[in-house]
Amino acid sequence: MVGGGVALVVLTARSIVGTLIVPRGLSSWISRAVGRVTRAPFVFVADRCTRYETKDRVLAPQAPLTLLALLLCWLGLFLVAYTALVFGLSDIGLGEALRQAGSSMFTLGFDTSRQADVTALEFAAAATGPLVIALQIAYLPTIYAAYNRRETDVTLLQSRAGEPAWGPEVLARHRLVNILDSLPEFYRGWERWAADVAESHTNYPSLIDFRSPRPLRSWVVGLLAVLDSAALYLAIAPSRAPSEARLCLRMGFTCLREICDALRLSYDPDPRPDLLLQLEYAEFLGAVHRLEEVAFPMERTPEEAWAHFRGWRVNYEGTAYALTARLDAVPALWSGSRRRSAAVMAPDRPPDRLPESPDVTHPPSYGRFKA
Which of 97, 303, 364, 369 is least surrounded by CB atoms within 10 angstroms? Predict the structure, then answer.
């Protein structure tokens, strides 16, 4: 009994240290088990929702409640461990041992023992309960600070890529309003964003399941859209594409791979550039047509560009699709399939109204811009 109690104390303490203190994302069977158990009922209900917005509302509380469940699990395991130790080191019954351990752990002080070895255990238990709760409370500001940093750029992406985000829409909108010269800074910012997310979400894996405040936004879909826009730009206009696009692509697929490692999702670490994509050529042609509508400057034909685009996308398509399916992210264009069939959503586009006819929504007159 005493040996089992000591082992349980050590295992629980290791889980707490790895989750809340060591900045490395050390997982334990306790945190993984709690995550699976807590996630299962939310997924069960969400899979039976027909509208994506309803599914997102169902899944939104899952990650915060997992943190609460993990705290309760740690406290419960410590209570069991100290009960076993008190029971093994004294001549009292199991019920009385539970009463003494609980009184000490939660600092209630209504029951105690006069045995020296048991008193030492009670002091340890009295320190353990408040310490675990304090560590969890101190952990929350770090989590939510990283969450706010992540969501700021995801929100900013709405005006550049639509909602839900789509890679070709990034290029089309920048061309539409003649701000292609802002793309180097845009890709530079998302390179740093990907590095920040890779660091924070692997050190604190609970962040991965935290959903965006709005149902049609998703951090993984946003990153996928940015990577697709960079790959598409490099494929169709390599001499015009900013060098920052290459750096963003590299950091972006590195971020996705590190997060897949944290979730223990498999992927090909060195894919061949001529591998077949899940994205079909017909879908790629649809994106090219969207860019032709806005007279986007192109240096290659769609057939030539497809080979280069595919060579970029093989590096991140598998990891991105695995994460969008795992997280039930918004079913945006070019974001893969979900566990349950879902209608693919195209990005919303603001109405095109002119000063001379403010009440009329005009079809896009993209011919205004010269190639």
Answer: 303
Tell me, yes or no, whether 124 and 177 share the same domain.
Answer: no
The answer to whether the bond into 164 is cis (omega within 30° of 0) is yes
The rounded distance, in Å, linking the Cα atoms of 193 and 150 is: 7
Using CB atoms within 10 Å of the CB of residue 99, give its burial: 0 to 12 exposed, 13 to 18 middle, 19+ buried.
middle
Q: What percent of the chain has pLDDT over 90?
A: 67
Q: Same domain, yes or no, for 237 and 98?
A: no
Burial of 54 (0-12, 13-18, 19+ CB in 10 A): middle
The rounded distance, in Å, linking the Cα atoms of 266 and 216 is: 27
Q: Give the residues across from 362 on adjacent strands.
A: 352
Summary mean pLDDT of the chain: 89
d(CA 233, CA 242): 9
The length of the chain, given as a count of residues: 371
Taking only the tens place, the pLDDT of each residue in 125-151 is 888 989 999 999 998 999 999 999 999
pLDDT in tens, 38-70: 999 999 999 999 899 999 999 999 999 999 999
Note whether residue 367 is domain-resident. Answer: no
Strands of the chain (E only): list them. Answer: 352-354, 357-362
Whether residue 230 contacts residue 245, with contact meaning beta carbons closer than 8 Å, is answered with yes
Q: Which of 64, 55, 57, 40 is nearest to 331 (CA)?
A: 55
Amino acid letter at 321? Y
Element (H, E) at 17: none
Lookup: tokens for 140:
């929350």
**What range does the domain containing 129 cover?**
2-138
- Quickly count helices (H) and strands (E) in the chain: 13, 2
Q: Residue 267: inside a domain, yes or no?
A: yes
Return d(Cα 223, Cα 195) in angstroms, integer.
Answer: 12
φ/ψ (deg, to 5) at 265:
-95, 135
Q: Determine how β-strand 352-354 pairs with β-strand 357-362.
A: antiparallel
Q: Any idea which residue has 């918004």 for tokens?
A: 330
Domain count across the chain: 2
365 Rama class: left (phi>0) / alpha (psi -120 to 50) / beta: beta
- Rounded to an integer, what distance in angstroms lies between the CA atom of residue 112 and that of residue 53? 53
On whether both 127 and 246 belong to a single domain, the answer is no
**What letter does residue 92 receive in the DSSP assignment?**
S
